[in-house]
Amino acid sequence: MTSSIESITGRYVNLAIGGTPQRIYFEEAGQGRPVVCLHTAGADTRQWRFILNDEAFTRSNRFFAFDMPWHGKSLPPEGFETAEYLLTTEAYIETVLAFCSALDLEKPLLAGCSMGGRIALQLAALHPDRFSGFIAIEASDFQPAWYDIDWFHRPDAHGGEMGAALVSANIAPQAPQAERWNTQWMFMQSGPGVFRGDLSFYTRDDSLVGRLGTIDTRSTPVHIMCGEYDMTCTPEDARRTADAIAGATLVVMKELGHFPMSENPVAFRPYFQEALELMDLSQARLVHV
Q1: Topology of domain 9-288, CATH
Q2: Residue range 44-56, pLDDT digits in tens
Q3: CB 222 within 8 A of CB 246
């Protein structure tokens, strides 16, 4: 193996979320159409590293992937030691919009996975004018927990290893061993209570259900992607959600689970390429209307 330097560039941007200063880490690669990528609950930008390193994608797309506050290289805000981290829809939306504004991204494409896919659909309903399209991966209208989220932040349990255990059940059996463990490692490194705080948003906020019918795919396309081995957002959940959005498209991805871009990037790649091409076709139709 020869030495090489990847083309991904990492930087920080300072934002104010809910009036609180936040120093947000993000990675960038490519040129052309801006695409903002959102990580899953309890993880960080590393999940998108294969997409940002893909020269075929970066020739015509400028990718941005950022760590949410409390995640990865984005430190918690001052005073976090006496605070309880609980992500809300409002704070999540504000963070995404503030990031796009700070970087002067004009109508970027938004691609999010799991909780990132859920918030992509919220933004499709509430702020469609800010984006050119939405790729919602492992996303559904609402997913009540089939597990006790408090197990991820207890004094008698290792929250990171508990998170990795939950994650392991949502990775397809076909995933390469190395990427299976790399994906689980991100959760093992998650800060105390962060996975629990994300899951609070993911499993308790059902506000999207009543908003799905307001999403207008004639002006802003929505493409939903779901791994066939995802037991958290099942193909049935994704299909139910897509059926509630007039004009939304759906694909069930073979041999993939809940973390497709991370657990098996080779298998995920053609599905993501198809998603980008669908966004291109939709935009071309809008131009000719």
Answers
A1: Rossmann fold (3.40.50)
A2: 999 999 999 999 9
A3: no
